[in-house]
Specification:
With 257 residues, this protein is α+β, with helices and mostly antiparallel strands. The protein has one domain (7-246): Alpha-Beta Complex (Creatine Amidinohydrolase). The protein contains four helices and 15 strands. The chain has a five-stranded antiparallel beta sheet with strand order 8-7-9-14-15. Strands 1, 2, 4 and 5 form a four-stranded antiparallel beta sheet that branches. A hairpin with a 2-residue loop joins strand 4 and strand 5. Helix 1 packs antiparallel against helix 2. The protein is globular, with a radius of gyration of 17 Å. The model has no long low-confidence stretch (mean pLDDT 98). Bound molecules: 2-amino-4-trifluoromethylsulfanyl-butyric acid and cobalt (II) ion (2 copies). The site of one cobalt (II) ion has 6 residues, from strand 4 and strand 5.
Length: 257
């Protein structure tokens, strides 16, 4: 079911979003070689709880941690572990969902571990650009396919591929609501976007082929060709006119897209 949010509800999602932004900024600073993904999980979990919020990935369909930490060929849903030690040259995505005052927000970034190759830097940059192209298409009256097309075409123009097996989603009182927000699509197709809809736009971009599979741990999604992938996500609110509000990024600068 698609739920539309009123101004009061959006204000609560904004507060949750700004908290998540603070948490993710701190997590980004925390990332360095020789720490474990369990260390990042503990750091983020504590920050969220100290702020009076709930890390809602923990226990979600049995998920055992408060963050997803996905390295290199892991696209999403990497489970934090005290035996996974970050190494210089890797890229890691940290994907976190939290609930504050009953309202959920979801955001993810991909960051370098120490010094990384120019190819990986470009993958991270283009993945973020894919988000901005997708978000810019998320205006009142447009359709879901416009977002997917914007993401996919920017990825492909840069020689990458947009992962199809997983999608963005609506969000609100629940982490995952309708509509599904694919990172590929045809302009003018799909659900029409309306003021008050809150959705997560989350490009997952592969340096190689977009095909993925799940590991035996029941969660981690990796690329079939084991080429690296990056992930970038924000929770956004569709407005009556103009560009959407990025709820998980205060003072968003749209830049040139
Ligand atoms: N934050 C994820 C998303 O973007 C969901 C994570 S799955 C979980 O939709 F199991 F970790 F919760
Ligand atoms: Co997420
Ligand atoms: Co999401």
């Amino acid at each position: 079911m698609i739920t539309l949010k009123n101004e009061e509800q959006l204000a609560k999602m904004r507060s949750a979003g700004h908290l998540l932004h603070d948490v993710l900024c701190a997590a980004r600073e925390f990332i360095r070689p020789d720490i474990t993904t369990a260390d990042i999980n503990a750091f983020v979990d504590e920050k969220i709880r100290k702020a009076g919020a709930i890390p809602t990935e923990f226990g979600y369909e049995g998920y055992p941690a408060s963050i997803c930490a996905s390295i290199d060929d892991e696209v999403v849903h990497g489970i934090p572990s005290d035996v996974v030690i970050l190494k210089e040259g890797q890229i890691i995505s940290i994907d976190v969902t939290l609930m504050l005052d009953g309202w959920q927000v979801d955001s993810c970034f991909t960051a370098p571990v120490g010094k990384i190759s120019e190819e990986k830097q470009r993958l991270i940059r283009v993945t973020e650009e894919c988000f901005w192209h997708g978000a810019a298409a998320a205006v009142h009256g447009a359709r879901i396919g416009d977002i997917g097309y914007a993401v996919q075409s920017h990825a492909e123009k840069n020689g990458y591929n947009s992962v199809r097996a997983l999608t963005g989603h609506g969000i609100g009182r629940k982490m995952h609501e309708d509509p599904s927000v694919p990172n590929y699509g045809v302009p003018g197709r799909g659900v029409r976007l309306k003021q008050g809809m809150t959705i997560c736009v989350e490009p997952m971009i592969a340096m190689g082929h977009y095909a993925v599979h799940q590991l035996d741990d029941g969660w981690t999604i990796v690329t079939n060709d084991h080429m690296p992938a990056a992930h970038y996500e924000h929770t956004i609110a569709i407005r009556g006119d103009g560009l959407p509000e990025i709820l998980t990024l205060p003072n968003a600068k749209w830049g040139e897209i």
